[in-house]
């Protein structure tokens, strides 16, 4: 057996069934390859010698962890075992009295490692994890955090849902130097948070913390998504309002971004994270590599192409292969934190800053000739007038 390295891990291909590739240097450290081709690092040992019970623990997905990072983690578990302990069993025993708060922390940590799969059986995105974390901190922990995982019942979940609907978790929270989180309740928030809670308890079942999922069977309120479209008159009013805002000194980059949203029907994040390589002028389309539905194509009309081609020199700045609509030549992109303010790190937080930039533009334009707000089309964000 060879030493597990990036090369040997990459060479391990799907074989139609699960198999393991063991490291040639550290007994008990290996790679698990599922029939789908998904790969994760594992550590295992036996209790009672030959013929004894095997303990095995997943360390994390390949890609989230490197082979060397997984090797270092495996050494810690095996070193504890060498001292005569049974660390995997001890972890399982300690988790039997785990609280909902501890479960949520464990779930979020596993999701960050790519061990929790979301849509299309892919690890959750950073933006989704940020949303999950917010729902855990603002809704789940205040109402259920101190309860033991094994004691939660279907009735507890129903009471939790009604509490969120009734506004028991509503709050206005300071999140930083100038940050602020407005925590809202209502049917939509309750429905989405109970959905997350169901995923968290599915994880608890998979970890052997309880035999069933108490969220199963709970009837959630309908999550009514807005479904508004702009009429010809709405588009005309939007165009007039944006022209007025631009004439009054509104940030031209943000105005251009709003126009591009209106002309493409794309989501806020899709425009905020648009890369120059995703603009296919010959094919007259945006070929988005990563959206909520995976890779996607957004047709571009002549007006949208004209908008992109007509931006003045210096208004597009490329940073790390991402296309940003900037304030002007030599100045920072619109959606970066201003100098002197705390800077968020990570894709999810950058996207939230982008959304704030758009939202501020919408709010200022609403004070003009048109009232503009964000509509919703199957989860996408579109400008709407009403």
Features:
386 residues, alpha+beta, Double Stranded RNA Binding Domain, DNA polymerase, domain 1, 3 domains, 3-stranded antiparallel sheet, disordered C terminus
* Overall structural domain count: 3
Mean pLDDT equals 78
Instruction: Give the helix proportion (percent range).
Output: 40-55%
Largest sheet: 4 strands, antiparallel
- Reading the helices and strands in chain order gives HEEEEHHHHHEEHHHHEEEHEEHEE
**How many angstroms separate the termini?**
67 Å
Label the overall shape: globular
Summed up, the helix count is 12
How large a portion of the residues is in β-strands, by DSSP E?
A: 15-25%
Structural class: alpha+beta
Poorly predicted runs are 316-351, 369-386
Describe this structure in words.
The chain has 386 residues and is an alpha+beta fold. It has three domains: 6-89, Double Stranded RNA Binding Domain (2-Layer Sandwich); 100-206, DNA polymerase, domain 1 (Orthogonal Bundle); 232-385. Helices cover 41% and strands 18% of the residues. The chain has twelve helices and 13 strands. It has helices at residues 6-11, 67-82, 87-95, 100-112, 126-144, 154-165, 187-206, 232-247, 252-264, 268-272, 302-309, 347-366, and strands spanning 19-22, 29-33, 39-47, 53-61, 171-174, 180-183, 279-280, 285-291, 294-299, 316-319, 322-325, 372-377, 380-385. The protein has a four-stranded antiparallel beta sheet, with helices on one face. A three-stranded antiparallel beta sheet has the order 7-8-9, with no helix packed on it. A hairpin with a 5-residue loop joins strand 3 (39-47) and strand 4. The longest helix has 20 residues, at 187-206.
């Amino acid at each position: 057996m060879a030493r597990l390295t990036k090369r040997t891990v990459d060479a391990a291909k799907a074989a139609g069934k699960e198999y393991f590739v063991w490291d040639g240097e550290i007994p008990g450290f290996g790679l698990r390859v599922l029939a789908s081709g998904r790969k994760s690092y594992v550590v295992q040992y036996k209790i009672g010698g030959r013929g004894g019970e095997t303990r095995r623990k997943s360390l994390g997905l390949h890609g989230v962890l490197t082979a060397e990072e997984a090797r270092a983690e495996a050494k810690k578990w095996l070193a504890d075992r060498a001292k005569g302990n049974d660390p995997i069993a001890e972890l399982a025993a300690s988790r039997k009295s785990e609280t909902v708060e501890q479960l949520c922390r464990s779930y979020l940590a596993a999701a960050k490692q790519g061990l929790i799969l979301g849509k299309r059986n892919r690890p959750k995105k950073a933006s989704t994890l940020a949303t999950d974390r917010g729902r855990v901190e603002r809704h789940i922990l205040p109402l259920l955090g101190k309860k033991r995982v094994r004691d939660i019942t279907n009735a507890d979940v129903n009471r939790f849902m009604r509490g969120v609907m009734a506004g028991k978790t509503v709050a206005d929270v300071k999140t930083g130097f100038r940050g602020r989180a407005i925590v809202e309740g209502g049917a939509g928030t309750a429905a989405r948070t109970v959905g997350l809670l169901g995923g968290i308890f599915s994880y608890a079942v998979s970890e052997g913390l309880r035999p069933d999922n108490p969220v199963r069977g709970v009837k959630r309120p309908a999550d009514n998504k807005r479904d508004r479209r702009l009429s010809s008159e709405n588009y005309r009013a939007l165009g007039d309002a944006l022209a007025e805002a631009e004439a009054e000194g509104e940030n031209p980059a943000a105005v251009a971004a709003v126009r591009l949203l209106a002309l493409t029907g794309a989501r806020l994040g899709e425009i905020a994270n648009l890369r120059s390589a995703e603009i296919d002028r010959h094919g007259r389309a945006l070929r988005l590599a990563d959206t909520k539905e995976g890779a996607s194509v957004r047709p571009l009309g002549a007006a949208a192409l004209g908008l992109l081609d007509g931006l003045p020199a210096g208004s597009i700045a490329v940073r790390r292969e991402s296309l940003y609509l900037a304030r002007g030549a030599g100045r920072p992109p619109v959606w970066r934190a201003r100098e002197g303010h705390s800077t968020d790190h990570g894709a999810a937080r950058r996207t939230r800053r982008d959304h704030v930039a758009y939202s501020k533009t919408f709010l200022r334009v609403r004070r003009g000739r048109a009232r503009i707000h964000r509509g919703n089309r199957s989860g996408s964000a579109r400008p709407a007038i009403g």
